[in-house]
Write a structure and sequence with these properties.
85 residues, mainly alpha
Length: 85
């Protein structure tokens, strides 16, 4: 089995439900690569898998705070909430 071909296959076959397992498997395969040149060839697929995991990491919205999704909480220098002006 060619590790780079398997990493590439994982990249194209991964789904939202399999991304964690596929990325862990790809990392294991990456560790078996012996030269920097082969690691560089696999890097683009590893980066892609990492990006997919980040994009698909959807967390439930919290309605308890009353803030809308994406609204940032303004804080002062010490992390305490700023007063509204």
């Amino acid at each position: 089995m060619d590790p780079i071909a398997e990493i590439k296959r994982l990249y194209y076959a991964t789904t939202r439900t399999t991304i964690d397992r596929d990325l862990a498997q790809a990392i294991g395969l990456l560790k078996t690569l012996e030269t920097e040149e082969t690691r560089e060839r696999a890097a683009v697929y590893m980066d892609g898998l990492s990006q997919m995991r980040s994009e698909w990491d959807v967390r439930p919205e919290s309605g308890a705070t009353g803030r809308t999704a994406g609204a940032a909480k303004k804080t002062g220098a010490r992390g305490t909430p700023k007063k509204a002006r």
